[in-house]
Amino acid sequence: MSKIRVCLADLMIYGSFYYFTLAEHLRNQPGFDIDFAFDRLRYLDDHRDALRAPWVRVSRLNTAAVPAPVRTMGRAGNYIINLVKLAYIAPRRYDLVHFQWFPLLGQSEIEPRVLKYLQLHGLRCVYTAHNTVPHNSGDRYKQAYRAMYQLPQMIITHGETARQRLIDEMQVRSERICIIRHGLLQTAKPVEYNQARAQLGISPDTVMLLALGLMRPYKGFDILAQAWSQAVSDIDDAVMYLVGYATSKEQEQVHCQLREDALRKTRETYRYVSEDEAAQLHSAADVLVYPYRAIDNSGALLTGVVHRKAIVASELDGFKEILKHNENALLVAPGDVAALANALRTVVTDLKLRLRLQQGLVNTDLHEYDWNVIADNTCHLYHRLMNT
Asked: pLDDT digits over 67-95, tens only?
């Protein structure tokens, strides 16, 4: 039997760690010949020899010296070139194309047109809905996404919450949706707990809390800053690390919520951190905090879960597919500053609770989030789709 020829496409590298981890686990699956189409960014250099990707690259534009609007335009132009190139190559080379993101959807019709073109030439198409619609977009792109979701033969989503949104809000038939989990993300080797804390200058008795990720409004860093300001007066020895890239406006929105006494117990880092830095911070932390307003699935949570720390998070349906209140996390209503402040006080002052939540996470069944299982499930979907 001939191999199924697949192109796994993330032409703008929106989900770099997810994409390359999935690619590495798919590449040796029997019965498939899989190509990987991506635009190599500077932090993905290590992968260039491991994966085949004969696509246009513009890494020279990904430098701090180039103004952000120019970088954005350059990446968008590069993406369009790659998409057109894929449309030309795919009918001659592949049986199935699996798309990860459509970054221009709602601003351009090129992605739905490429989907229709590929299907017209007999290819099967799969789309992974990492987010049902883009974060913080409200209803702005809902119509465009609803129309696009009618096109691929199959849509992958990462959980029941997102699946139900596709059915209810996007009118996607349930038989066209397949749940395949987002894998756990460990981007660098963890550091030993005491060593990591010594490197950061944290004393043995200090409870370290960490909120790490892009500081976008939906992630609720401003809510956390308010809650920490309320809680900190009742806490003797603790420090909150707020870490992640933020625009000047987003920095101000977070910083201005921190009262003077909270500022003394807060470390603010408004920039991207390396994989090694992120691993060091997670390793040193006692508590991980996810104060999101809304989300379907969170790569940040799936990074934190790897480290098996006590977690305080918003009680969102997507989070509750892993986190159980008072078993492996403390969950609070999204946007409830007082409830979040109370949860922070409780988890900081109660060592036995932290240890119990950690053990609860160790005992949590995460088999579905294993990358080998995800690769097997993905290939099973490819087989099923090619046989219909």
From this structure: 667 777 777 888 888 888 889 989 999 99
Question: Residues 250-283: pLDDT tens digits?
Answer: 999 999 999 988 999 999 999 988 889 999 999 9
Element (H, E) at 348: helix 337-349
* Residue 377: partners with Cβ closer than 8 Å, 6 or more residues away: 178, 180
Using CA atoms, how far apart are residues 6 and 380, in angstroms rounded to an integer? 13
Report yes or no: 20 and 47 within 8 Å, Cβ to Cβ.
yes
Measured CA to CA, the distance from residue 68 to residue 139 in angstroms comes to: 26
Locate 338 and state its tokens. Answer: 């007082």
- Burial tier of 201 (Cβ tally within 10 Å: 0-12, 13-18, 19+): exposed
CA-to-CA dists, residue 118 to 4, 14, 19, 81, angstroms: 16, 22, 22, 16
pTM comes to 0.88
pLDDT tens-digit map of 37-71: 766 432 333 444 444 444 434 344 444 556 667 77
- CB-based contact 315:208 (threshold 8 Å): no
The closest of 350, 349, 348, 319 to 332, measured between CA atoms, is: 319
**251 — alpha (psi -120 to 50), left (phi > 0) or beta?**
alpha
